[in-house]
Request: fold
Amino acid sequence: MKACIYHCCGDEEVSFDHFISYRHKLSDVIFNKMKSGGVHQPDNDLNLVVKDIKNL
Reply:
């Protein structure tokens, strides 16, 4: 089963550099960059997550 990692560009708690670093190290993981949102909450919009779950 594939794992998915999501990261909001506006996350003030976790630097976007972490997302890039993990992307290079974890080749079997699906990475999704979200343009807006804050700390661990993509503007209360989980449509991208729902879409990924349906495509598993």
User: Anything to note?
Assistant: The first strand starts at residue 3 and ends at 8. The chain has a mean pLDDT of 80.
